[in-house]
Write a structure and sequence with these properties.
InterPro entries: BHMT-like, HCY_dom, HCY_dom_sf, Hcy_S-methyltransferase. Strands 1-12-9-8-5-4-3-2 form an eight-stranded parallel beta sheet. A two-stranded antiparallel sheet has the order 6-7. Strands 10-11 form a two-stranded antiparallel sheet. The chain has helices spanning about 15-20, 35-40, 40-55, 65-70, 75-100, 120-125, 135-155, 165-180, 200-205, 225-235, 270-275, 290-300, and strands at about 10, 55-60, 110-115, 160-165, 185-190, 190, 195, 215-220, 240-245, 250, 255-260, 275-280. It is built from twelve helices and twelve strands. It is α/β, with parallel strands linked by helices. The protein has a single domain, classed as Homocysteine-binding-like domain (TIM Barrel).
């Protein structure tokens, strides 16, 4: 994938909600990562559903997957490492299945993006929507570095650095991306024109400007907040923009559920694309039907 996108790329939607729709309880701290151990075929089925809906990118089930998180759940380190890399293998297998179909559109290239969620996701206390964890940069490096190495070793097409709530964690991740020299998109979780931790996006988007970051944007925010953030991302970085918000509800970390009312992302997408978004899709609560609608709207 090049650093510049001359066409629109349709991303997938939320993994957890699609798994819940298939009857899985994801209320424990491992969230969707638990199914890497307990029901990997179900994860494959969700990747398949999004490709069928028109997505050309499958985002792996590694957002909440970390050696630390698995060990806290009683999973031995070696098995935890295997499960993390299996997230890429599952998505690659489904991608290859689609690419081998005789009816595959000429020139279509489906991709696998290895999800890298924030440190706060492992804490499972909602802090990925607040940031400022109160830990050192070295703690963040020690957490993210080995996971990035594991995911890259499984050979995804790129990394999806996503739902990053503050600039401290962004700085650490950008340093690591430069060291491993692997392509990634980089997305903040935002509230208006600020990160979830309250830093201005003009400052935040100035961080992931290295060559390894091929696109910059936002995810897991309200659809109505996307367009202005995309405009800011493009103005600051000059890179293609990524936009995949949630359905607009608010995460209740105590009850561990989404609350409020939402809105389908497809209704907002033309504005994102006009603002410079080259990669569009959805996050939490956005399902295959939403991606199908988005794909049809965009004529892909």
């Amino acid at each position: 994938m090049s650093a510049a996108s001359d066409h629109l790329v349709i991303l997938d939607g939320g993994l957890s909600n699609a798994l819940e729709d298939r009857g899985h309880d994801l209320s424990d701290a491992l969230w969707s990562a638990r199914l890497l151990r307990d029901a990997p075929a179900e994860i494959a089925a969700v990747h398949r559903a999004y490709y069928e809906a028109g997505a050309t990118v499958a985002t792996t089930a590694s957002y909440q997957a970390s050696v630390t998180g698995f060990e806290r759940a009683g999973v031995p380190r070696a098995e935890a490492e295997r499960l993390i890399t299996s997230s890429v293998r599952i998505a690659r297998d489904v991608r290859d299945e689609f690419d081998d179909r005789p009816a595959a559109a000429p020139g279509t290239r489906r991709l696998v993006a290895a999800s890298v969620g924030p440190y706060g996701a492992m804490l499972a206390d909602g802090s990925e929507y607040r940031g400022r964890y109160g830990v050192s940069r070295q703690v963040l490096r020690n957490f993210h570095g080995p996971r990035l190495d594991l995911l890259v070793s499984a050979q995804p097409d790129l990394l999806a650095i996503e739902t990053i709530p503050d600039t401290q964690e962004a700085e650490v991740l950008v340093e690591l991306l430069a060291e491993i020299d692997f392509p990634a998109w980089f997305c903040y979780s935002i509230d208006g024109l600020r990160t979830r931790a309250g830093q201005p996006l003009t400052d935040a988007f100035a961080i992931p400007t290295i060559d390894q970051v091929i696109a910059v944007g936002i995810n897991c925010c309200k659809p109505a907040d996307v367009q202005a953030a995309v405009e800011t991302a493009v103005a600051i970085t000059g890179k293609p923009a990524v936009a995949y918000p949630n359905h607009g509800e608010t995460w209740d970390a105590v009850a561990r559920r989404w609350a409020g009312t939402g809105a389908a992302p497809a209704a907002f997408a033309p504005g994102w694309i006009e603002a410079g978004a080259s990669y569009v899709g959805g996050c939490c609560r956005v399902g295959p039907d939403d991606i199908r609608q988005l794909s049809h709207l965009c004529g892909t």
